[in-house]
Specification:
six-stranded mixed sheet, 25 helices, single chain, about 750 residues, four-stranded antiparallel sheet, alpha+beta, 22 strands, Alpha-Beta Plaits
Length: about 750
């Protein structure tokens, strides 16, 4: 069956965007084919630095014929309505319609065959729309064109069934204005649109071009196999996986020839594969004079700034060689390219060496005062103030982590000081890492130095989580101060926007707590941070206007961006507590949501997490244990049946309590029981509820669930044989109190109203 080939040739596409754009193009074209009733066997997308390509195989020559049926007006409807319907379906007489009776009324129906169009006629507009719909993280437009693309687009290759696609609309109009003098890709033609404005046109072609320098001339192709082979001959490797494999194999071979091993770096390998169309791998010398720099400095300078691979010696230490990937072949075998890259790297490392030598002349402690000039946030003051608050917070956190308080305070004090070092200013990626080196130079304990290096961790889901007590303490303090601070000034994540990475910070706190099994009460910890904020006011750092909803700042520290209405100094504490209480509620809900995201990969149900958090429990280790026990409970029939019974009891109580304007929680009167099922329920509740309370107190959640399970049969029997809303008012109230015992007793385990299910 026919094959579709499309290629979009442009200026260099950023490596990080290539895979996503290729997948997006494939999705858009395939979805468009389905909407046009065109099937296909397979579709493959490819990306290089200068092109996106898509090959779709097995598309039929034409669309299938389809039968359409439209319902018209009722027989006997006004003549104008019937005529309008006939005109819309292309009929001239009602006799061409069928009639059908629906609910006692007869209607006209028009059935007609719609002939499919040739695929070659359908594809051009479909492809143009797909090109326009590709979404880029960042894009650009040139001159006054309305067309948005990642980089200037030069050519669109479009071939179907070995033939050039012809667009009846004249190609992709970039929408330039009158007398445009803007950039014209490869001298693309200009046409006048229907409104007398000039438009720059990029029409479909059957040509492409090869490597920008090695084979820049035009290449005519007829199908995908021809396209791929000719590109390869023109020094362009189309498949990213082939480029990646070639680079990895050649780099390892060169390192091996030098008696070294290539440092494993899959991320850099992926990135470099997107930087060159024809990779040529070379090896160069770092320079022995730079090898006394910390390994992280060398790796960062090579990896992040120059995209070079590092090499390791037999002992696994960094060697004085680097592997680079050029995008072209040189007549001198690459000697000039290698020499040029060595000069660039050595110049950068010379700067790093100077910074390294200079920074070690000044202690981290002496740098602290400079943090006053580094802003944390306009509403939260300076980094220095954040550090002081971290020092205050670690006093309460060490109770849970077991860290040495003095060392935790020292690590918190010094953890941000490397931000004002010359090395970190030049290489921001090294913040924390350089702080560790400088701390060791200053004679600080290993625990303190390690905590400085690890206090940002874990940064992402795959980042290693700190486990040393001092490191865990400082990492928690850093993230909690950030979270409470931004929530306190009402700067919360909204939708997909999270400019201050608060979701990542919350997940970091969750991982630190769960992976280290810390019994850290979140509510108490957050309140401790609020107390630190309140200290700012007590110090007189701020003055407050007596006017409505206005707070004025006279210092560098906390200032809510969401207005706090403060009427007088006498109400200051009360107003602050009310404001913080609202933010605390939102922050705990935020943590419940982040915990559900973290546990989603383990198959833990969100509704169970929500049901446990609703009890006000903020000990994540205990929450997780209770959720696990609940999950096991609801995998049994007892759990599902009890949930059904709970919802039945809760619904009856909700209706009756609203109707009677009273609650029915309270002691039942055993003398009023007149059915055995009432007596059995009361007896079982008297036995089970104390067991549940004792099990919850000792955190034996499995025992609590077992006690709950024992209530299934007596509760089922109660509902099967006892009429709650009977005519006797006293008996009715007593039975409603029995239902309240079921509801309130089960709610001690979790808020069962938040749990999904119970459909029996």
């Amino acid at each position: 069956m026919p094959e579709l080939l499309i290629e979009l040739l442009s200026e260099e596409i950023p490596a990080r965007m290539q895979a996503g754009a290729a997948a997006d193009l494939k999705r858009l074209v395939c979805d468009g084919l389905k909407k046009k009733n065109l099937t296909f066997a397979k579709a493959e997308a490819y990306a290089t630095p200068r092109r996106l390509a898509l090959a779709v195989d097995g598309i039929p020559d034409r669309q299938p014929d389809i039968s359409e049926e439209r319902k018209g007006p009722q027989v006997g409807a006004p003549e104008k309505a019937v005529e309008g319907f006939l005109k819309s379906v292309g009929f001239s007489s009602p006799d061409q319609c069928e009639t059908r009776e629906i609910k006692g009324k007869t209607f006209y129906f028009a059935a007609r065959e719609k002939k499919g169009r040739n695929s070659a006629e359908v594809l051009p507009s479909l492809l143009i729309q797909a090109i326009l719909d590709v979404v880029w993280p960042k894009s650009m437009r040139w001159h006054n064109s309305s067309f948005v693309w990642v980089r200037p687009l030069h050519n669109i290759l479009g071939i179907f069934d070995g033939k050039l696609l012809e667009n009846g609309q004249g190609g992709l109009a970039l929408g330039f204005g009158p007398r445009s003098t803007g950039f014209r890709p490869y001298g693309a033609p200009i046409r006048m649109d229907d409104f007398g404005k000039e438009e720059l046109i990029i029409d479909f072609t059957n040509t492409t071009s090869g490597h920008r320098f090695l084979s820049p001339g035009p290449i005519e192709v007829k199908d995908f196999a021809d396209y791929r082979d000719k590109l390869n001959a023109a020094h362009v490797i189309l498949e990213p996986s082939r480029r990646r494999e070639l680079i990895e194999t050649a780099a390892k071979a060169l390192a091996s020839e030098a008696g070294l091993a290539l440092r494993d770096d899959p991320g850099l390998l992926d990135e470099v594969s997107g930087l060159v169309e024809w990779p040529v791998v070379m090896i160069g010398d770092i320079g022995a004079e730079f090898m006394d720099l910390p390994d992280q400095v060398l790796v960062t300078a090579m990896r992040h700034h120059q995209k070079y691979f590092s090499c390791l010696d037999d002992n696994g230490k960094l060697a004085a060689k680097f592997v680079m990937v050029a995008g072209t072949q040189a007549t001198d075998g690459g000697a000039a390219i290698i020499a040029g890259n060595e000069r660039v790297l050595r110049a950068r490392l010379a700067d790093a060496k100077f910074f390294w030598d200079q920074d070690r002349k000044t202690s981290l402690e002496s740098r602290f005062s400079k943090l006053e000039n580094v802003a944390f946030h306009v509403g939260l003051g300076s980094i220095a103030r954040k550090v002081e608050m971290m020092e205050g917070l670690v006093k309460s956190i060490v109770k849970s982590t077991g860290a040495d308080l003095r060392r935790a305070e020292q690590a918190a004090r010094l953890c941000k000081s490397d931000l004002v070092s010359e090395m970190v200013i030049e290489f921001p990626e090294l913040q924390g890492i350089m702080g560790r080196y400088y701390a060791l130079e200053d004679g600080e304990a290993d625990e303190v130095a390690d905590a400085i290096a690890e206090h940002y961790s874990p940064i992402g889901p795959n980042d290693e989580c700190p486990s040393k007590p001092v490191s865990v303490t400082v990492a928690l303090a850093e993230k909690i101060i950030t979270l409470v601070g931004f929530f306190s000034i009402d700067e919360k994540p909204t939708g997909s926007k999270d400019p201050f990475a608060l979701r990542r910070a919350a997940l970091g706190v969750i991982r630190l707590i769960l992976e280290n099994k810390l019994r850290l009460p979140l509510r108490e910890t957050f309140n401790n941070v609020h107390a630190l904020f309140e200290d700012e006011y007590d110090k007189g750092t701020y003055r407050f206007s007596s006017g409505p909803e206005k707070v004025s700042e006279t210092g560098s520290g906390f200032q809510p961006t969401k207005s706090v209405k403060i009427l007088s100094a006498d109400t200051l504490e009360k107003d602050l507590l009310a404001f913080f209480a609202d933010q605390l509620k939102d922050l705990l809900a935020f943590f419940a949501d982040r915990l559900s995201v973290h546990l989603k990969k383990e198959g833990v149900r969100f509704d169970l997490i929500d049901a446990v958090f609703a009890l006000g429990d903020d000990d994540l280790v205990r929450v997780l244990a209770r959720v696990a026990a609940l999950g096991a409970f609801f995998e049994s029939d007892d759990g599902d049946h009890l949930l059904t019974a709970y919802k039945r009891a809760a619904n009856i109580l909700r209706i009756e309590e609203k109707k009677d304007d009273k609650t029915y929680s309270g002691d039942v009167n055993v003398k009023l029981f007149d059915q055995q099922e009432e007596k059995d329920l009361a007896k079982n509740l008297d036995t089970a509820l104390p067991k549940i309370a004792k099990a919850l107190e000792s955190e034996d959640f499995a025992a609590a669930m077992a006690a709950l399970a024992g209530l299934r049969l007596p509760i089922d029997d109660f509902f099967d044989h006892v009429t709650v809303n009977c005519d006797d008012g006293g008996l009715r109230e007593n039975r409603l109190k029995s239902l309240a015992r079921i509801r309130d007793g089960m709610n001690r385990v979790a808020d069962f109203s938040r749990i999904e299910g119970g459909g029996h």
